[in-house]
């Protein structure tokens, strides 16, 4: 099984799985917070319509975790409202 690295933690994924799906399957339900109330955010719509699941992948910011296919060796970061 392949793995991505999420904030220092190895997360396995299946081929073709999105990063959001891999994180959720690993029990990680939140990886950023809202700008004003710092409320936790993760997958919401799961189809790329909203922006709740923003992540940084290999230094590329503001990507939607539900739309990015996981690739072995990806370094993924969550973060604040501007992830």
List the helices and strands and how they pair.
Blueprint: E1 2-6, E2 9-13, H1 19-25, E3 32-33, E4 40-41, E5 54-57, E6 60-64, E7 75-77
Parallel strand pairs: 1-7
Antiparallel strand pairs: 1-2, 3-4, 5-6, 5-7
Describe what you observe in this structure:
The mean pLDDT is 94. The protein has 83 residues and is mostly beta strands. The protein is globular and about 40 Å long. The chain is built from one helix and seven strands, in the order ββαβββββ. Strands 2-1-7-5-6 form a five-stranded mixed beta sheet, covered by helices on one side. Strands 3-4 form a two-stranded antiparallel ribbon.
Average per-residue pLDDT, rounded, comes to 94
- Show unreliable segments: none
The total of helices stands at 1
Largest sheet: 5 strands, mixed
Q: Identify the overall geometry.
A: globular
How do the strands line up in the largest sheet? 2-1-7-5-6
H/E order of the elements? EEHEEEEE
Structural class: mainly beta
Helical fraction: under 10%
User: How many β-strand runs?
Assistant: 7
Per DSSP, what share of the residues sits in E-state strands of 2 or more residues?
A: 25-35%
Radius of gyration of CA atoms, rounded to a whole number: 11 Å
Distance between the termini: 27 Å
